[in-house]
């Protein structure tokens, strides 16, 4: 049987042990383990990589600790606007949504776009209308509220500042701490098919309908059986400018790099030249896994059916 592998992330950035209470650290580890278990169970039962990553991301979207789904950050207008994307490496089919509101699990809507819309990328009201047509579960604004995200927004809402934060403590240092709270997953199933998905609430206090890299195919999310499946987290503008996820695939396809070599090149050389902070996770069709970041930490976890099991927060 092919090596089955699942890799997930819950964001990268200024994640250091001294900022973390034991309770919060345990909560993040538990959240990652729950998502990893949900996705890996799908793979163990012979399910597809696409269904496995969706299952893992739904768990993180439902967890208020992560900036995706419930617990998404507040925009300039005090609302939640969420983005998500998913891509099937076996077919190169993809689905993405941006600026959606009240959708409980944006990753499920992205999956519906991929499978049932004849399109790749839907935005705003159109995406919401499609969600209703497809019977995607909606929730009231109150469902998405979290006190620490509200406090985070309140600290900067009267300024023109925005924050890429996943901050919990030391609110007075809000603009110094940088934590990118996107969630993502990549998987290789028993058939050797791979897939990638990413979901996010974006930036605190974002305005003008800002869109980051997460829902953009090739930038924050990409999958191709011939090379790799990648999900990114970090300063989205830099990941867009460097077409980060697809660049990993190109290095593998055209230069013969391994997954690890290609991700190292993009994250630790190309992104750093652009002052792009963050990281990415990936798998290839042989079930190899990699987790690379140039920030202080990245919430991450990985498991396969051999000897890989890792749950980590810090460098």
UniProtKB/TrEMBL annotation:
This is Isoaspartyl peptidase. SUPFAM superfamilies: N-terminal nucleophile aminohydrolases (Ntn hydrolases). GO terms for molecular function: hydrolase activity, acting on carbon-nitrogen (but not peptide) bonds, in linear amides; peptidase activity. One of its GO terms (biological process) is proteolysis. The record marks 181-182 as: Cleavage. CDD domains: Asparaginase_2 (cd04701). Pfam families: Asparaginase_2. Substrate binds at residues 210-213, 233-236. Keywords: Autocatalytic cleavage, Hydrolase, Protease. The active site is at 182 (nucleophile).
């Amino acid at each position: 049987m092919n090596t089955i592998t699942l890799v997930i992330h819950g964001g990268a950035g200024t994640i250091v042990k001294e900022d973390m209470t034991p309770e919060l650290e345990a909560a993040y580890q538990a959240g990652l383990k729950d998502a990893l278990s949900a996705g890996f169970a799908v793979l163990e039962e012979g399910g597809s990589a696409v269904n496995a990553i969706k299952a893992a991301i739904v768990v993180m979207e439902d967890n208020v600790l992560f900036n995706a789904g419930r617990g998404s950050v507040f925009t300039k207008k005090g609302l939640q606007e969420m983005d998500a994307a998913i891509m099937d490496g076996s077919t190169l089919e993809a689905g993405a949504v941006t600026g959606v509101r009240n959708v409980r699990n944006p990753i499920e809507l992205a999956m519906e776009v991929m499978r049932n819309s004849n399109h790749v990328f839907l935005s705003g009201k159109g995406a919401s209308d499609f969600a209703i047509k497809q019977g995607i579960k909606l929730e009231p604004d109150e469902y998405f509220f979290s006190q620490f995200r509200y406090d985070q927004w309140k600290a900067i809402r009267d300024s023109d500042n925005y924050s890429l934060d996943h901050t919990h403590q030391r609110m007075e240092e809000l603009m110094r701490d940088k934590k990118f709270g996107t969630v993502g997953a990549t998987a290789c199933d028993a058939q050797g098919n791979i897939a990638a998905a990413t979901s996010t609430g974006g930036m605190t206090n974002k305005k003008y309908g800002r869109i980051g890299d997460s829902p953009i195919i090739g930038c924050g999310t990409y999958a191709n059986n011939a090379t790799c499946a990648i999900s990114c987290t970090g300063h989205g503008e830099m990941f867009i400018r460097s077409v980060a996820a697809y660049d990993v695939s190109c290095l593998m396809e055209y230069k013969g790099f391994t997954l690890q070599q290609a991700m190292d090149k993009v994250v630790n050389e190309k992104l750093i030249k652009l002052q792009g902070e963050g990281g990415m996770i990936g798998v290839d069709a042989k079930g190899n896994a990699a987790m690379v970041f140039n920030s202080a930490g990245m919430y991450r976890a990985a498991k396969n059916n051999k000897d890989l099991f890792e749950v980590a927060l810090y460098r």
